[in-house]
Design brief:
Blueprint (H helix, E strand, L loop, with lengths): L5 H19 L32 H18 L8 H19 L13
């Protein structure tokens, strides 16, 4: 049997999960954009919007090491912590704190490269 790539498996899973919702819509009724609520058994990562980000090798190495360390410390309890989890946490933390401080006024990318 041919091995499938993760993207193909996710696409198939989304199609299967989205199929009942598509059949329920009637072509005679106008469509209104309602907030999308994923089915209850949808994996959490499928509820997020995909966004690519380019990282330096040292950043990726540090994220990988930190994710491994945190997973070892949690000893299998709760959700697995991935590099993407850490990036989401960092973005949430950054957005919460930066809006209060006004630190970005007059700054550019070169100010943050390290």
């Amino acid at each position: 049997m041919k091995r499938k790539r993760l993207a193909e498996l996710v696409r198939e899973e989304v199609e299967v999960l989205g199929a009942p919702q598509a059949e329920a819509a009637s072509p005679d009724t106008p469509t209104q954009e309602a907030p999308e609520t994923p089915p209850p058994h949808t994996p959490k990562y499928l509820t997020y919007v995909r966004k690519e980000c380019r990282l330096r090798p040292d950043q990726l190495d540090a994220l990988t090491a930190l994710a491994r360390k945190l997973n070892r410390e949690r000893k299998g309890k709760g959700e697995r912590i991935t590099e993407n989890t850490l990036i989401r946490w960092a973005v949430d933390f950054y957005l919460k704190n930066i809006s209060e401080s006004g630190y970005l006024a007059g700054r550019n990318n070169d100010d943050f490269e390290g």
